[in-house]
Please model this.
Amino acid sequence: MIKSKNWYSEEVSLSGTSKLDKNTSLLQKLLFKVTKKWVSGNTYKNALLTARDCNSKGVSAILNFLGEDNENSTAIENTVTEYFSLLNLLESNRIDGCISVKPTQIGMTISYDKCLYNFRQIAGTAKSVNKFMWIDIESFQFVEDTIAIYLELLKDYKHIGVAIQSYLKRSSSDLLHLLEQGAVIRLVKGAYREDKSISFQSMGKINSNFSKLMEMLFEYGKKNNNIFAIATHDPRLIEEAVVLSQKYDIDNKKFEFQLLMGIHNKMKEDLVKRGYRVSEYIPYGNHWFPYSIRRIRERKRNILLLARSLFQS
Model:
């Protein structure tokens, strides 16, 4: 396991490498408070406790060890080892859950081959303990290679899925290609800043494309029995998914709703009561800063939460 320091004295910066000290900015201090809403803590122990709590409410867990854009070989090896341990702990503790891994945290920024090799090792461990593995999708520059790696892994490991982002203009074509290969898809909106030439800029167009891609998932799922995940906190899109499941007569167990930790907890419970599968995305670890900044950018409510903390201080 990767050893961690205390949650509130750990190193933090945009790159996750500089020390917190007396000169830490007010923003970062306030962000610590807000971050606790959507990051379970420093270590796997925190993540497993959160996962157990989810399970007690009928919600499955998706665990992610935070980190990205990693170019340090030792840190990459440690991250791979962390996922090995995490998978074994999920199995030994009988937790209903899986893992989600970012390509750039296990070598993508160094080389395609290194990343593929590390994914093979993690996928092999996941298979040995009968656990599912999701591959997170990141910024545009890594999308092509991420999809290629996923399709390569899919030849040998069937319990593996990949995310597709509705804010990218290429996603319709990517989704069709992936579905034809029997892929398991997690549909998300996307949280990275991209040029308008390759991405939709307005939330209206992003939502519209999400609806379009979601119907493709339900229609294809009906014909070919694909399983998939709808990852959004938008109540309108969630109800739209419910309607589509009825339109295409899709069994509730063939797809699931995925929501982030700390967001719309009542909605999660309501969906479970209605008979739908629900998973909670639970990140943990020291490298919480880039993840938290994206969470704040993508939701006005998160910005208001940060502003309230600033006012109270």
Remarks:
- Residues 1-24, 305-313 have pLDDT under 50 and may be disordered.
- Residues 203-224 form the longest helix (22 residues).
